[in-house]
Each structure stands twice: as structure tokens, then as C-alpha cells.
Design brief:
24 helices; 33% helix
Length: 611
Amino acid sequence: MKNLSRFLALILCLAMCLSAFISCTGGNGDKGTDVELDDEGNVRPSTDVAKVEFWINGDEYELEVFSDLVERFNKKYEGSIEVDIKQKPSDGYETAVQTALSGSKLDVFYVGDAGYKSYAEQGLLFDITELVDNSSIYDLSTMWSNVVTRYKYDINTKLSGTDSGRYYGVPKDIGPTVIFYNETEFEKAGIKIISVAAEDLDAYNGGAKDDRGNTKADIGLADVTVKEYGYFVANGQKYFNNQIPMSWDETVEVANILQNSMSNPNAYGYFTEWWFNYGWSVGGDCIQFVPTSDPNHGGGWYDFTLSDSTPNYIVADDVGSVTVNGNTYAAGEIISYQDKLGLNGTSVAGESYSKEITAEVLALVAEGKLNELPSQREAFTEFVRLAAKTSTVVDTVDGVNLYGYGITPTPSSIGSDAGKTQAFAQGEIGMLVDGRWNVSYFRDPDSGVNFTWDVCPLPMYRDYDVDGFGAEREVTVHGIEAGHSGSVGLCINNNSLVKNAAWKFIEFVGSEEGQSAQAAKGFAIPLQKDLANTEVFLQSDKMPRNSKIFINAAEVQGAGDWWYLTDNAWIDDWAGVLNGDVRNGKKSMTEFFESKQFMDTYAKLLKYTEK
């Protein structure tokens, strides 16, 4: 009897051990068992619940939306998947995520486009390419290509958007940048608003109404042919078209008008912290890829071209196409840096190369097929002049001093990101360049906004045949619409034990249901183009009335320079000087370009392409 008791105890012990072993191998402890997906990405029936931990670092509006999305998702997948949302402080979010990625507790998290490539190269992100390709819900072909390609990355070639690239995340959203403007202050300054897209000007001039329901006759323009101006003066009256980008000069003029008339005597007419739309509008950039046959570098190297003084060139509007350095360009396209200089890959990485415009380009200019645009240095100087005082010499060109405009607050006076949005909300800035994410805040009754506001496009380069702002001007040369859009990716921890379940949540966020929920709160533009062009996003009964400007911006805007390479080591030092001493009026452009921080960038850039 005693032996039988011992035998039964042994059997019970083995059973308990076997149960524990099955629990450890078949399941994932408190994470449950990951779901299985069929060939079309659908969840197969499950006997266990996969627990997904999702970290968010957004504001109160984003938390409200995602808490609701999590609740909807959990109800939809009840019995199979359960998501637990946790809000983390924005300060220190990235550090907390990197620490958590060493374990398997965290599953889904945000990665900004600035850090995405570095995370991927470190092996921290799960490769979701096959999951994306097999999804019947997450259709990349319906989305903004210029944001989707940011997340398709080849960690070997370090190139984005190529056929060999892989998805280690997908966009949660896209945040185009525009100008938010205080319409109440425009009216006080005597500026009348019209709202006509460039393609609708002919109809408008023929008697059609603008998007606000007014004809030309209604606002004193009956005898005027309205042209493609952001701002103009006709019959002694000032007009602003909120669907046409202002030229650089028009932006300064409107900012000065506002600044001199705004209710707050300490107000500024304009504020932007980004140079991108100035440089990109004329084809410039802060770095350029230089092809090389140098065996120590993978096909090329990056040169620091923020101070590049060579002019840029655009194909004239009345020209079908031109070929430069073997590449074909259509009307309205800007010639690349490599082609205008005829770079062919024979340089040694880091050594000087010819900065002379090729004879081929100059001949096309002489034939009227190419128009000359400002250089990157000229565009960058225009940006720096915005905040400099009118008594400050920003740069000297050919013996001529270029002074500041004094139309924007300096970085030291505006403070943090919150500072600029609060300044606009309090009527201290007439026009603010920022992203869609501010809409929720400006709509909030607690924000302090007590005026009418709307949005318009970012400035772009244009030159005219006569000076001034009259309605008789004709455009002689123009750049392109440009600017940057922000984006955050949703990624899966490579150590996650419930990767399939985590993907189903990301897929849900990217679905029309998930995107509609974000758009409803105002802070995001849907990833799906068709959805963005509906009232789900446009919300014409609310401010901003001109929301389609965000859609136009999404088509033309790319990632900021923080996305170009795997980290910001090449940016941080010179950007600190730029946003410190230079934009605060303590250093001239020449002093900036001669600074150690600026000069050291050349050597730093070489490291990114070394084999």
C-alpha cells in the first residue's frame, strides 16, 4: 500500500512538471499564446488570449483616441487578443523604450522617423514585411507614398524605398506642415481673404465663386484678373489667397503688415523653425550624395552642402523635357545637384570636386530651356533673416549687406515647442508654421484661442517681372512647393512573444476605422488618400475651413534631415549653433560657416558610407 502511494505521488509530480513544461513552451506565461494567421492574414480560432502591451507618449487628445481604439480592438478580438495601453511621458520615452526592448514585455511602440533607421540596424525591430504584404486590410498602395517609403529600409545598403528594402515598421500617421494664420488679425489689418486653387483661377476670373462662396465682384475684384499670387494689392485693397503659396517677399510683406497692426504690441507676424521649404523649394539641401569609385565607400559619399553657393536650375514651364547628364527632366522639375555639376563617380571620398556648372546646363539656360533659381546658401540666408533684427547683418554677398527682417521671434524668446503654439493661441504670432497635430489643441476651448483661424500653404520661391505686390505682375521664375511632414512609425519589439497579435493591432490602427478615429479628433490626416478627401478629415464645419491644404502638402512634403542617415551625430553640433547664436543674432552666416561645429561636419559625414 505504501509503495502504491509512492507510485501515485510520483505520477502526480510528473504530471505537474509536464503541465508546467507545456505552459512554458506552448504559451508565453502572462503574455498568453500568440495567435496564428492564415494565408490572408486573418486570425485563426484560438484557445488562449495573446496579451499585447502598447506604449503611447502622445498628448491628452491622442491618449483619448487610442484608448478608444484599444477598447474597440479588444472587443473585436475578444478571446484571442487583448491590448493593454500604457501612456509614457514624452520626455524620456525613447530611453524607456530602448531599455524595455531588451525584454519581451513591451510589444508595440512608437518610433519617430528620426530614429527608425538606427533601431532597424540595431536589430531592435521585428521585420514585418511579409505581414504587410499578406494583409488584406493594410494596403500601402492606397497611402501617401512619400511617407510609406520612409519605413522601407535596407539595412545593408542603407537606402530607403528600394525594392530590396524591408518594413520594420509602418506609419501611424503623417503630419504635413502648413501655415496656421490668425484670420481675425488679417481682417483687422485690412487684408481680405479669397480661397481659390490655382487650377480654378480661370473659372474664378470668369465669374465662378471661390471656396467661401464669393465671386470677384463680391469683394471688389470685378475688374481685376486674379493671378497666382499668395498676396496682392488691387484697387488699393490688400488680398490674400489662402490656397496659393506666398512668395518669399509676399511672406515678409504680410508678416510686417500683421506685426504693425496686431492687437498685442509685442506680437510677431510670422514664425517658423524649419528651413526646409526655403531650401527645397529651389532644389537645395544640407547634404548631397556624391558618386565615387573610391573602394572604401559604397558607391558615394555625403558632402555638407548647406552653404552651397552654386545656383540651381528648373526646367521652364513651356518646355516638354530636357536631358542633363543622361537624365531626363520634365517641365517644372529641378535639376539634381549631381547632374548640374556633371558628377560621375570618379572622385575620391572627401576630396574636393568641381563646383562649376556644366557647359551642358549653361547651354540649356542660354536656349531658355532652364531657368536659374537661388542657391542653397541664398535660400538658407532667407530663412535666417526672418528672426534677425532689422539692424543685424545676416550675411554679406558681393559687398552688399543683407539685414534681418525682424518678423519672427528668436528661438531664445519663443522657448519650447509648446511656446510657439501657446504664442499663436494667445495672439502673439500672426502666422505659425507647424503641423496638423496642433488642430486639436487650437480647437480646444481651454487653449485660449478666441479668434478665427485657418491654414494656407508654406511659402515657395517666385520672382516677378516688376517690383511690388500689384495685381499686374507676371511670374518670371518659380521654384516648387516643398516642406517637411512629420511621421511616427508603429513597430514591434523583436523580442516580443506575441508578434502576430501585435501586428493585428498595428493593422487595425492603419485601417480606415483606425485612421478615421484619429482624423475625427483633428490631429492626424488619414494614411489613405481617398479617406483624406472626405469629410472624415476635411470637417468643413470646423476650423480650419481650408483643410485640403494639408492634403496638398502631404503630396509634396518629405522627411526632415533627421531622417536622412542612421543618427543625428552629423546634425546636432551645427544645429545647436544655428538655433542658438545664429538665429539669436549673435553670429553672422559667414561666422557660422567658418565655425568649428560647421567644419567638423564634413568629416562626420564621411563615416556614414565607410565600408
